[in-house]
Amino acid sequence: MVGPTKKQQQVLDFILKCQQTEGVTPTVREIAAHFGWRSPRSVSDHLDALRRKGVLGGEPKLARSLQVVSPVASLRKRVVDIPVFGSIPAGLPMERQQEARGCVTVDVGTLGFKPTPRTFALEVRGDSMVGRHILDGDVVVVEHGQTPRNGDVVAALIDGESTLKTYVTDKKKPHLKAENPRYPRLIPAGELMIQGVMVALIRRMKA
């Protein structure tokens, strides 16, 4: 099946955006106004084409009845929201509590893996992981419940304090390694709890 044209995809994206941000689909006149079309006929032609291609449903003459349907998932990137639970120090460990700070929206193709209900994100604070190209202000995507391997970057609680470091096993004894020579390695005096293994890195452009 031939997919939507560039303009048809723009119309489809606008419908999806309205559904996600406003909770309702736009009317034909609202679509026309958004794209600067004088005649609603242009909108109707695009909507009819999208219906024929199987990516749009709903009653043609019923306002706000448009529905984006399969196989749209194969025609555009699948977007997911990953919850951001505060920040994590990439420096010396700090005692912190998880702070809900909304979500970071990404597409699955960019991540390179399929997020699960155990996937979450943390904002990096500090410079102890610059050797792994993890900078202050970056967002690390972490998978909770994954068993770390030697060399994985992990979000961890070491003796009750949180930090982001490289997981290292030496003679079967795990410890945490900073990727900056200014910081010491961290050997747990008591408990080392892995909160999650880093699976992706998101760099936010600074203004």
Description:
It contains 4 helices and 10 strands. The protein has 2 domains: 69 residues, Winged helix-like DNA-binding domain superfamily/Winged helix DNA-binding domain (Arc Repressor Mutant, subunit A, Orthogonal Bundle), CATH 1.10.10; 124 residues, Umud Fragment, subunit A. 20% of the residues lie in helices and 32% in strands. By secondary structure, it is an alpha+beta fold. It is elongated, with a radius of gyration of 23 Å. An 8-stranded mixed beta sheet has the order 4-3-5-6-10-7-8-9. Strands 1-2 form a two-stranded antiparallel ribbon. About 2% of the residues have low confidence.
List the SSEs and their pairings:
Blueprint: H1 6-22, H2 28-35, H3 40-52, E1 56-57, E2 67-68, E3 79-89, E4 100-107, H4 108-111, E5 119-125, E6 139-143, E7 153-158, E8 161-170, E9 173-177, E10 192-202
Parallel strand pairs: 3-5
Antiparallel strand pairs: 1-2, 3-4, 5-6, 6-10, 7-8, 7-10, 8-9
Helix pairs in contact: 1-3, 2-3
Outline of the structure:
The chain has four helices and ten strands; from the N terminus they run H-H-H-E-E-E-E-H-E-E-E-E-E-E.
